[in-house]
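Weekly structure sync - notes
Attendees: PM, LS, DV (DV joined late)
Agenda: review two folding runs queued last week.

Item 1: First target. Sequence and structure tokens pasted below for the record.
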Amino acid sequence: MKMSNNYKNTIYRAAIFICLALLVPVHTAQAEEFILKHADTLEASKNEVIVNGNILINYKDAIIEAPEGKIITDDTGKPIKAVFEKRAKIKMTDRFLVADQITVNIKEQTLFAEGNSISELDDKDKNKITISSNYQELHWSGENASAKGNLKTTYKDTLVTADEVLIIYKNKKPNEAIFYGINSKATIKQPNHHTSANSITFNLDTHGVKASGDVNNVSWPDDTKNTIEQDPVFVTAEDLFIDNELGKITATSPNKKVKLIYQDTKGESLKAYLVKNLTTGKPEQIIFIGNAQVSQIDKELISEEVVFNFADKKLTSNTIINKRPKTLIYKDNAKP
């Protein structure tokens, strides 16, 4: 009696599944087992199972799909590592990963993605963090993760480019991301801030930004206006902190001095603050502290503390902490 091709394929795949079940045994704690559900072809040796075509695997809370792969086993037949190729995918409850090659280290509970890898992670509020890079390493149980090579990260209204990133987890969820510039500086772009530095730390809860090393920052201080409708503030510093909860930017440069430019106001000091009103979203002051020297078209003010007011564009220095005498220089603009 002749069998149809569909019937032959059904028997063939059933035989493969039986072989896979024998090679990758299922024990009582099935949620922890590495169960190969389907593949079109199979080739087995003592410590390796090579599978091809429509691979489907269940492992813990994940579904793994790939065109090609191999499973490395110990002498008892228990899987210890699996390698999947040609745009493999792993779908988990709070994460998704796709890459040219994905290696699952079962013993170490880690994932390694290589070649045009893209991952999506959920923060504690289920917001997506999307990371694309050449290489990524994730821990299965929700521990620190890393990525490097042509790195691009998007999260809500934040875009970061860097050479490497380390994602710090807290309570099994991403809490903080530290970006490193190795070949070129790391850059973070938010609606009202663009910052580049040797390293940038971004807090996912507060959206606060800490930048260190050769910092360049451009900020648009008025939240009530579009960026094209206002003049930006330019800052260079050794370290910078953007506190979105307090509406404050702090720049420090104990060695080289902070340098700040806003319209015709130019200032240098050891530390500088840009402060805005959280209720109105409008900027209020720029405060220069420590050997401050601030100039405008018609004057220059030198003191331990100089305050620039956005409302009237005036410079003042009337704080009681001043230890050095104030120096006010009026410029003669008539001279060439």
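Item 2: Second target, run right after the first with the same settings.
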Amino acid sequence: MFQAHIMGDRFHFRCSQGTSGRVHSVFDSAVNIDISVNNSDVSLLTLLCAGSDVMPASLVTSMRLDSWHNYCKIDDIAIFTPHTVYMNSVPLVSGIATAAIWKPVDDKTVGSLSILNSEEIAERGNLVKTYLKENGIILNAFPIESLDTLSVNTLLGQGMGLTPSGDDFLSGLIAAMHFTRRVYDQECDLLPVLANTVLQNMGTKTNQISRHFLHYALEGLWGRATERFMVAFFGDDDLKLHGAILEKAAYGGTSGVDEIQGVLFGLYETVRRIEEESFCI
């Protein structure tokens, strides 16, 4: 049996309430349990191996040098309690009640971040891309010029990967729009429009795992690595930023890098519209 190390606050809430579901997908480092029949706001709960990035509805465990394939298969029944996660009635993860809980950064911390103008964001964004390339990390090309001409359907469900590259870019973009709202205390008018378009189309355009992450972004939620990157981006510690870049870039195949590019695009475009007073509220 594995030990719980750290979990997102939504995972903790679901365990504290008690819930159950069926295994949706199994990988070496992760297993997703579909609980959408019980709750509409979170469709998947995820168990992760040690060292993984923690997300709002995930649990990082003590599992190392092993594979979740050895412990479960698709359609197995998972039960979540305040103390233990069971798989087919067999205890799989213990220590839920005493594990650390990760929550997004508070408004006070966000409010203390530097207010960068669009030129500074563009310059810092180019430094991020240069650092990625210097570390041999390939950037996908996204044919998006500005928020004003953005077409959700050119991105949603497009590209390779378990979560398509276009979805990862959109997740980063939407997360950045929510984050700038907190930093600058202004919301871009295009955010509700963009969010509504994604919600209307993602049911038929992409898969459940990708929809799950898009739901996070639409609610203004993100994983720990994404948050560390955005916070470091507005900071003045280059070493911390470099560490955050590599941590996020290591996520998935190209998912982390695609999300970084979406964040950079979203930060620049949102702040540009704020400066131009382009219907920001």
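Discussion on item 2: The longest strand covers residues 19-26.
Action: LS to circulate a short write-up before next sync.
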